[in-house]
């Protein structure tokens, strides 16, 4: 036997899971992003024990055809890109084809899905192995249930923090996904308690009100700016409405919530000297650009991106926010629309 052996598919999936599936929130992120990519208008998330016992995501998206359903569990299998050219023009949240096989390899995984045009499918896997696969009747859409996450990777289970911390990570993530997609109705229920609900009527300010509260939303001003490459829109808080940390700044590029230090800095720069030291605004900025200008293939979780015209975008953000306060100075009036 040669010394160098190819890893079994199952082992390779578990290794990939180490990167993609860090904690319950990572599973929620991948499943909800798939539901968004499937064109859903309603996504329900049900959790038990902060997702460690159960994570269920129910969507009304396009579903998976019966003859495709097992392909979804193959590594690097995706319906979202095909060529290298596609990789530079990513319009979906997913494209790596890693999430389902990775999550399935570290849990008991149930998939029910239907395209609405033929009989649907039911698949049950344990530790990445298919245990059951049969036809199943279902309305158009997909239900995924991930039970007993990390049951077969005790080291990872140990690394998971308290249920409270894991739950707050999930709520934070869903808040940002909901603000990134105000046109989708999200509902999050944990152990029977509703934690989040958005209407999905497309209004970002209403989504913000649903998340940060109506009185906070009332103290946020609309931002809009545009140049040849970028379109910026969203809401920023009045300078007197601040927080002690940067985590209330949300930046969404082409529907994807991202973290970017330089763009955070540009938002803060837009406030000039209006913020007290150590205080940060609440801001939700949606930025639209040609996908060619943003490389999302930097990190497995795709939260870090590379921007090819970052200085130009920083300038646009800063000046758009400055313009809001300039207007506010001339016509001091808070937008009180809910
Ligand atoms: P990726 O999202 O990178 O393509 P995943 O492993 O997350 O990879 O999913 C594999 C494939 O399974 C997707 O490309 C998609 O075709 C299908 N899929 C997964 N979740 C859903 C869903 N909720 N609705 C419809 N199709 C889905
Ligand atoms: Mg995916």
Automatic annotation (TrEMBL):
The gene is mutL. This is DNA mismatch repair protein MutL. It comes from Vagococcus zengguangii. This protein is involved in the repair of mismatches in DNA. It is required for dam-dependent methyl-directed DNA mismatch repair. May act as a 'molecular matchmaker', a protein that promotes the formation of a stable complex between two or more DNA-binding proteins in an ATP-dependent manner without itself being part of a final effector complex. Belongs to the DNA mismatch repair MutL/HexB family.
């Amino acid at each position: 036997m040669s010394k160098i052996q190819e890893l079994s598919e199952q082992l390779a999936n578990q290794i990939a899971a180490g990167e993609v599936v860090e904690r319950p929130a990572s599973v929620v992120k991948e499943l909800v992003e798939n539901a968004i990519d499937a064109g859903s208008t309603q996504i329900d998330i049900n959790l038990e024990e902060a997702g460690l016992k159960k994570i269920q995501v129910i969507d009304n998206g396009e579903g998976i055809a019966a003859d495709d359903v097992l392909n979804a569990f193959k590594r690097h299998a995706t319906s979202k890109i095909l060529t290298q050219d596609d990789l530079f023009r990513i319009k979906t949240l997913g494209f790596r084809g890693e999430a389902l096989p990775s999550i399935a390899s570290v849990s008991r995984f149930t998939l029910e899905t239907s395209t609405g045009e033929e009989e649907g499918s039911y698949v049950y896997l344990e530790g990445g192995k298919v245990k059951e696969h049969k036809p199943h009747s279902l309305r158009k859409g997909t239900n995924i249930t991930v039970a007993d996450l990390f049951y077969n990777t005790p080291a990872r289970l140990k690394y998971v923090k308290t249920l409270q911390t894991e739950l707050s990570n999930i709520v934070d993530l869903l808040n940002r996904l909901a603000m990134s997609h105000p046109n989708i109705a999200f509902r999050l229920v944990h152990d029977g308690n509703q934690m989040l609900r958005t209407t999905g009527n497309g209004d970002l300010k209403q989504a913000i009100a649903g998340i940060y509260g109506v009185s906070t939303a009332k103290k946020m001003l609309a931002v809009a700016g545009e140049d040849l490459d970028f379109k910026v829109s969203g809401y920023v808080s009045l300078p007197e409405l601040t927080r002690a940390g940067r985590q209330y700044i949300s930046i969404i590029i082409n529907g994807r919530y991202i973290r970017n230090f330089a763009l955070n800095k540009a938002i803060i720069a837009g406030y000039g000297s209006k913020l007290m030291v150590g205080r940060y605004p609440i801001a939700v900025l949606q930025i639209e650009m040609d996908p060619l200008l943003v490389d999302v293939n930097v990190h497995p979780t795709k939260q870090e991106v590379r921007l090819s015209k970052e200085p130009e975008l920083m300038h646009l953000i800063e000046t758009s926010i400055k313009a809001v306060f300039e207007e506010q100075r001339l016509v001091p009036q808070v937008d009180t629309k809910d």
